[in-house]
Amino acid sequence: PFLRLLEAQLQDQRREHEEEVEALKNEVDAMKEELEKQQQAFLQTLQLSPEAQVEFGLQQEITRLTNENLDLKELLEKLEKNEKKLKKQLKIYMKKVQDFEASQAMVPAERRQHERNMQVAVQRKEKDFQGMLEYYKEDEPLLIRNLIT
């Protein structure tokens, strides 16, 4: 069983490594293509007159800036959509908090007093004992929540 587990983990790692290598190979191929395009453009530029070289350089920069601008507009649209979504979620959560606060305000005072007495009793019990903690299984989530807070 242990060897099978190790073998499965090794196969998972091997598969991830192969996927990573494949992704890197694709990235290298894309960079090679881009480099070839840039070399071709550079060779074409060298054959042009100085005025045409300047104009070609300006056209290249305009194209680069246009593409960058489009990427930034796309990013801005995504961020605006995310902002709208988060604002909607915030409104929902604020409404839930208001509803919860309203329901807490309607809880009778005697119930709140009973809860305070229970907390005091629990605190006293904890002071009387040292060592292991005894609790019911169904109280475990409450106990964990109280320990965390």
TrEMBL record:
Coiled coil: 3-103
Top-level division of the source organism's lineage: Eukaryota
Swiss-Prot/TrEMBL keywords: Coiled coil
Name assigned to this protein: MYO5B protein
Protein's organism: Chunga burmeisteri (Black-legged seriema)
UniProt gene name: Myo5b_1
